[in-house]
Write a structure and sequence with these properties.
Helices cover 44% and strands 12% of the residues. It has 18 helices and eleven strands. The chain has a five-stranded mixed β-sheet with strand order 2-1-3-11-6. Strand 4 and strand 5 (148-149) form a beta hairpin. It starts with a helix and ends with a helix. Bound molecules: alpha-D-glucopyranose. Alpha-D-glucopyranose is lined by residues 84, 108-110, 157, 201-202, 205, 257, 275, 311-313. Belongs to the bacterial solute-binding protein 1 family.
């Protein structure tokens, strides 16, 4: 289906701009998938839960707890790799094969629209309904497509600045201040700053943060691509310059989340942009050299704190699942207060239940919770579109080329704009 830019703008005028770009999806599955979505809604039995690598070691204990209470509806954990793009492609392959063994799947917030438009996710309506009233509105939005809820928000994610408080007394609030602090890293013989700069979804997150943090944006207020601007160029230029002058160590061009975490835990970085899951591991890993010496601050921006890209994961029920009644209860289990507290205390994952951020037991254990809530509440969502794979490719390819020096920032931003326009106008 072709979707014209005019249509994109119309959708935005209809009040959808707040969540970014929203395009009408082509329903690839059609009525056959609607039937699939309805079948098995009363049926109970064993199910499989599919998720990326359980870096925080929270999934197995949770599933053991569930299985002890549900001997006839046991959940088996299918663990994918730790790389966002591989997780996405694995899900797509299994949906295309109509795999009935991928019952409940963990969906990155940016895949909801694509999977829902393909009719792969069971709408959480009627018997499948879940109560979202206590959940952070931003997380519910990420699980919603065309006004229908397609998944249960499971964990949220907001970017944080991890820093060495033994070396830096007051964390920088602006990008320039952070770059000035890089002399401290030089004196200490360690790298200054890293984020996620390998060519994958994490680069889309980091490039968007650099652009938003400098006052630019990927999409304009009307929801159409608007990245060829002075402010967006300045944001991308900040990353390019930092690579050039070594403030971002050269090897960070290969970093996904885990490589950056390891470098930081080994004491090799002064500053690290990463998600909240790093807190627990940096504190408890036997090999962490920074257990008592790291702090957490908001991401730095242009004139003050910056804006994170909104991350997070939602749990959805595949339309091909044969045991949707069990899958539905498992979703409710995932968003229950007990599970959400467990995610927070055991894995320092960001709860989707708003009240937990002020829960005194939790804030005593996890002092960074107010900073995290601010990061999530002020986070910028990535574009919401069934054509997200082409959108993220436009951002990744061009920002990567700029970081590697194979395109100037001007060229990169110009090409990004053109590729975004083509991705959002033709549904490539
Ligand atoms: C985290 C975020 C997710 C993001 C991914 C990028 O898992 O929760 O939203 O897409 O990192 O690597």
């Amino acid at each position: 289906m072709k979707t014209s830019r005019a249509k994109v703008r119309l959708a935005s005028v209809a009040g959808l701009a707040a969540v970014g770009l929203v395009l009408t999806g082509c329903s690839a599955g059609g009525s056959a998938n609607t039937d699939a979505a309805k079948s098995g809604q009363d049926s109970r039995g064993p199910i499989t839960y599919v998720q990326g690598k359980d870096n925080s070691n929270v999934v197995r204990p949770l599933i053991e707890k569930w299985n002890a209470a549900h001997p006839d509806e046991k959940v088996t954990f299918k663990e994918q790799s730790d790389q966002a793009d591989q997780q996405h492609d694995d899900l797509v392959q299994h949906f295309q094969a109509k795999d009935e063994n991928y019952d409940v799947v963990d969906v990155d917030v940016v895949w909801t629209a694509e999977f829902a438009a393909k009719s792969w996710l069971t709408p959480l309506t009627g018997e499948m309904k879940i109560d979202t009233s206590k959940l952070l509105p931003s997380t519910v939005k990420t699980a919603t497509y065309n006004d229908t809820l397609y998944a249960a928000p499971q964990t949220s994610d907001g970017g944080l600045l991890y820093y060495r408080k033994d070396l830096v007394k007051t964390p920088p609030t602006t990008w320039d201040e952070m770059m000035q602090d890089c002399s401290i890293a030089k004196d200490a013989g360690i790298g200054c700053y890293a984020g996620q700069f390998a060519k994958y979804e994490g680069l889309t997150v980091n490039a968007s943060e650099a652009i938003n943090g400098a006052g630019g944006s990927i999409l304009g207020k009307d929801g159409a691509p608007d990245v060829d601007t002075t402010a967006a160029k300045a944001g991308l230029q900040n990353l390019v310059d930092a690579f050039k002058d070594g403030n971002i160590p050269a090897e960070a061009i290969t970093y996904q989340e885990e490589q950056g975490r390891t470098a930081f835990e080994n004491g090799k970085l002064l500053f690290l942009r990463n998600w909240p899951y790093v807190y627990n591991l940096a504190k408890t890993d036997g090999s962490s050299k920074v257990k008592d010496t790291f702090g957490i601050a908001p991401l730095p921006g242009k004139d003050g704190v910056g804006a994170s890209t909104l991350g997070g994961h939602n749990a959805a029920i595949s339309v091909y699942s044969k045991h949707k009644a069990t899958a539905h209860d498992f979703l409710e289990f995932l968003i229950s207060n007990d599970t959400q507290k467990f995610f927070a205390t055991q894995g320092s994952l960001a709860p989707v239940v708003g009240d937990l951020y002020t829960d005194s037991e939790l804030t005593a254990k996890l002092p960074y919770l107010p900073t995290l809530l601010k990061s999530i509440e002020s986070a910028e969502p990535r574009p919401v579109t069934p054509f997200y794979p082409a959108v993220t490719k436009a951002i990744q390819d061009n920002s990567y080329a700029a970081l590697k020096g194979s395109k100037s920032v001007d060229e990169a931003v110009k090409d990004m704009q053109a590729a975004l326009e083509s991705a959002t106008s033709s549904g490539n």
